[in-house]
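Shall we go through a protein fold together, starting from nothing but its sequence? Label the sequence line and the structure token line clearly, so we can match residues to local backbone shapes. Would you write everything just below, so we can both look at the same thing?
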Amino acid sequence: MTVDSQVILSATQSIPLLHFYHSVLPPLKRAYSEHKHTAFEISCILSGSGLYKTQNALYHFHAGDIFLYSTNEIHYIIEIFDNCDILNLHFEPRFIWSPGNDLFDSKYLNIFFNHGDSFENCLEQDEDTARIRQLLLEIEKEFNEKLPDYELMVKVKVLTILVTLGRNFNFSIPQKALSQSRSQHLLQLDKALAYIDDNISSDIDLNTIAKTAHMSRSYFSTIFKEMNGLTPWEYIINKRVELAAHYLTSTDFSILDIACKCGFNNTANFNHAFKKVTRKSPSDFRKSGGN
């Protein structure tokens, strides 16, 4: 297995807002795991075939397929029949709605959040999915060449993908622009997320985070879930587990050290949270190399 990855960081350079992966995977078969994360995901199968399992469906994928996954949505490749070449674009919701991203609009969150009864994670192949595939390849080219303003070009191409999805795949995209008050809420929410990112290893509480956003605790929780697809604590736990997974696979730190570095005050809480997110204990995750 080979994986090439690229990243765009937040303005403070503290947290990745976008990850781009190009993976080449050999034939395999593995037990189902409830894999999920805080980012949206767009996956493109360049070649190969296999089985993709979600919480509610099982997809037999082939070359040309495009998959969409929302935040905290369970999905996992359980079998690959022949060598697979896959592109994965992961981006945090605030990559769309962040106040500094003037080209982006929070209405495009509806592509991932507002799924009707007929929604399928796998898009029907047509000229529009071919266009999305081409845009993902162009994003990879921008990352590889790193010409001036390549990050801006990546953002433009992500927006083009979202507009293509909104126009052609029957997603409900509201046309009403954000009110001035809602724009201010996004600015405050962005500050709160920056506070969480900067203090992810510390003992933080929801009251303090809400004060950072100049909102009541209950209203902050409502706005946070509306714009990110998960509650503040779900976000914090997921981010802490992501950080712990990085330490488990890239360092020889002890389980206790990793727990402390990731904001858990004891190994019992760490083990419980880690297993809830990954369905594996930290020790088993380390032994498996994260697979």
Notes: The chain has three domains: 2-168, 180-230, 235-287. The chain has eleven helices and seven strands. The domain at 2-168 is CATH 2.60.120.280 (Jelly Rolls). Strands lie at 2-9, 16-25, 28-29, 40-54, 58-61, 66-69, 75-91.
